[in-house]
């Protein structure tokens, strides 16, 4: 009798924001002391994920952010308050860029709607006339006159 073993494979998708590095590895990758990472976390410059047991887990994005902090402080001579301000301004810029893109999409959609309505107006040769019960499109007939017969009391037609 042979024993058949089954292999199972587990696939884990790694994204840039998934915490995978413990503090010692992240510190080595960012070329910093682990205590520096703890200090940056206290200041709110970095927010590592936590394992179920509370261990700090740093992602690729966290390591890249740590490298940026290192670059701003060492190469550009910024203090940590300056780094915090840069990150705040970048977040505002990202939010404003997204808002501008949403507004541009909305403006384009409205422009398409105006063009559609203009084409419809030209097609019908109509004027849009407000109507008490929700509005109506009334075709314009510039050369034709029409009369509405009105009966008045005491008049014979």
Topology:
Elements: H1 23-29, H2 34-43, E1 49-50, E2 56-57, H3 60-75, H4 80-124, E3 126-129, E4 136-139
The geometry reads as: elongated
pLDDT averaged over residues = 83
The beta-strand count equals 4
Strand content: 5-15%
List the quaternary state of the chains.
Answer: single chain
Name the strands of the widest sheet in spatial order. Answer: 1-2
- What is the radius of gyration? 34 Å
Q: How many alpha or pi helices?
A: 4
CATH class of the domain at 23-78: Mainly Alpha
Distance between the terminal alpha carbons, to the nearest Å?
113 Å
Largest sheet: 2 strands, antiparallel
What would you call the structural class?
Answer: mainly alpha
Fold-level CATH name of the domain at 23-78:
Multidrug-efflux Transporter Regulator, Chain: A, Domain 2
Question: How would you characterize this protein structure?
Answer:
The protein has 157 residues and is mostly helical. The chain has a domain at 23-78: Multidrug-efflux Transporter Regulator, Chain: A, Domain 2 (Orthogonal Bundle). The chain contains 4 helices and 4 strands, in the order H-H-E-E-H-H-E-E. It has helices at 23-29, 34-43, 60-75, 80-124; strands spanning 49-50, 56-57, 126-129, 136-139. The strands form 2 sheets. A two-stranded antiparallel ribbon has the order 1-2. The protein has a two-stranded antiparallel ribbon with strand order 3-4. The longest helix is centred in the middle third of the chain and has 45 residues, at 80-124. The mean pLDDT is 83.
